[in-house]
Amino acid sequence: MNRLFIALPIDREIITNLNSVYTTLSQYNDILKVVEPSLYHLTLKFFGQCQGNVARAIESEFVSLRFSIPPIPYSVKGMGMFPNSKNPSVIWTAIVTDTTLLGQIVAHIENFAKKYGIKEEDRPFVPHLTLARIRKGRKLTEALHKRLHTFAIQEFGAASFDRVILFSSKLTPQGPIYTQLHEITLK
User: Catalytic residue at 182?
Assistant: First the structure.
């Protein structure tokens, strides 16, 4: 079985600009499971575990998807937490972009996923970049809350989304390994 997802890659300069956040979060490994910068992406659709036949069909048909959408400018800024800052499970930075254009891509991908029996997402799409997850049974300390607050209004850069990528993901004890399977260029 393959774990598959569709995502937009994050610009390398923005990833570099997020290094100070990564370094800070990494100091709290007992509380946080920090995302490696090389794995940063904006998830559009997570398919999860797919049987061989379904995975092969998704892979072969993904390349035939067409998006009549130009590259989409975006910026990365600030810091937030899901579901809230009192009891968070995820620490993220916001992706500020044209949500109408991005919504068109997401809707197209949701329709594509339906053909394979993949459940439609029931939460509204919130463009964000996951930076860390809070470890099960752990809580953020006051010191960490204060440190995160220093990034609350920081801007990390701007770029354009110009590719939609189908990835496979393999979970390992050291963390996930993402493999790019196919990409579609936005024109």
Answer: no
Residue type, 155: E
Measuring CA to CA, which residue among 178, 142, 183, 186 is closest to residue 35? 178
What is the domain count for the chain?
Answer: 1
DSSP per residue, the chain? -EEEEEEEEPPHHHHHHTHHHHHHHHTTTTTEEEPPGGG-EEEEEEEEEE-HHHHHHHHHHHTT-------EEEEEEEEEEES-SSS-SEEEEEEEE-HHHHHHHHHHHHHHHHTTTPPPP-SPP--EEEEEEEPTT----HHHHHHHHTTTT-EEEEEEE-EEEEEEEE--TT--EEEEEEEEE--
User: Which residues are registered as beta bridge partners of 184?
Assistant: 164
Which is nearest to 106 in space by CA: 128, 90, 121?
A: 121
Q: What is the CATH number of the domain that holds 26?
A: 3.90.1140.10
Q: What is the pLDDT of residues 140-152, one digit of tens each?
A: 988 898 999 899 8
The catalytically annotated residue of 41, 145, 149, 182 is 41
127-140 confidence digits (pLDDT tens): 999 999 999 999 99
CB neighbours of residue 186 within 10 Å = 17
- Those residues of the chain that have pLDDT short of 50 are none
Catalytic residue among 108, 128, 145, 149: 128
149 as an active site residue: the answer is no
